[in-house]
């Protein structure tokens, strides 16, 4: 799958490459959203400035290659997202947060991913977990496993469904075979270089989908160094309705979440307290929700 470019908004709209959801596929395991951006010179792009906005029914997974992002949320968490360190925020029944690249950031490069929460967990309390995985090295390969298990490493970050998330660096021409869970479907997002994934060629910014059934995954790097993200999980098995920043089960749930957020936004100058709370120490005015589409939101499976 190839990405489409999407502006994040603002006067100098930072552009991201979005491969999930797409017309070809809505989910890979519980992974339901994948934005890939950079490397962007902040002096030209304006960096990332995303004021307070809401989420429900999902977890955000932030992973950086270069730069730093300051995170503030309404559950009281204030953190700096740094390269090679995963930050997982659970929205659950409702949270608001802001994301702003730091003043020290000259180049911003990374990925923002969402995980759909299953029925039993989607109304859970909001939360936040940080983890800095140690690198694992094999001949021609370096990996950081931030969710799930790979290469005999198990991430301590808890997830509501089985998941895999790892950054892999391959040396030029390196070939490796990874043991993977045959119950998982997998996605390989290529950040840099060219790589053969399970017999298929992929270039930078491509997302390769691999169905369940295989107990191993073959990767062969091209003539340049390769960096990729390996994502996975068993087929989600639940239909979701996803619109703007909400993951729900019905059109009506989305309408209700939007209404409650707009009540907190008010005239747009400051964010009032309510279902989604107010991010700690965040002075920027909130982002209003866009108008609802004129058609009923469809389920994604």
Protein topology:
Elements: E1 4-7, E2 15-20, E3 31-41, H1 42-45, E4 49-55, E5 58-66, E6 69-73, E7 78-81, E8 86-90, E9 95-101, E10 107-116, E11 127-131, E12 136-138, E13 141-147, E14 149-150, E15 153-154, E16 164-170, E17 175-179, E18 185-192, E19 195-197, E20 200-202, E21 207-210, E22 216-221, E23 226-233, E24 241-243, E25 246-248, H2 251-265
Antiparallel strand pairs: 1-2, 2-3, 3-10, 4-9, 5-8, 5-10, 6-7, 6-9, 8-11, 12-13, 13-16, 14-15, 16-23, 17-22, 18-21, 18-23, 19-20, 19-22, 24-25
Textual characterization of the structure:
This protein has 301 residues and is mostly beta strands. It has a single domain (4-233), classed as Jelly Rolls (Sandwich). Helix content is 6%, strand content 46%. The strands form 6 sheets. The protein has a 7-stranded antiparallel sheet with strand order 1-2-3-10-5-8-11. The longest helix is centred in the last third of the chain and has 15 residues, at 251-265. It is globular and about 55 Å long.
CATH architecture: Sandwich
Count the beta strands.
Answer: 25
| Helix/strand structural class | mainly beta
Give the oligomer, counting copies of the same chain as homo and different chains as hetero: single chain
Strand order in space, largest sheet: 1-2-3-10-5-8-11
CATH fold-type name? Jelly Rolls
- CATH level-1 class: Mainly Beta
Tally of domains: 1
Q: Which spans of ≥5 residues are poorly predicted at pLDDT below 50?
A: none
Percentage of residues assigned to helices: under 10%
* Shape assignment: globular
Helix count equals: 2
String of helices and strands: EEEHEEEEEEEEEEEEEEEEEEEEEEH
Beta-strand proportion = over 45%
For the record, give the distance between the C-alpha atoms at the N and C termini, rounded to a whole number: 17 Å
The CATH superfamily is identified as: Jelly Rolls
What's the pLDDT, averaged over the residues? 95
> Rounded to an integer, what's the Rg over CA atoms?
19 Å
Give the biggest sheet. Answer: 7 strands, antiparallel
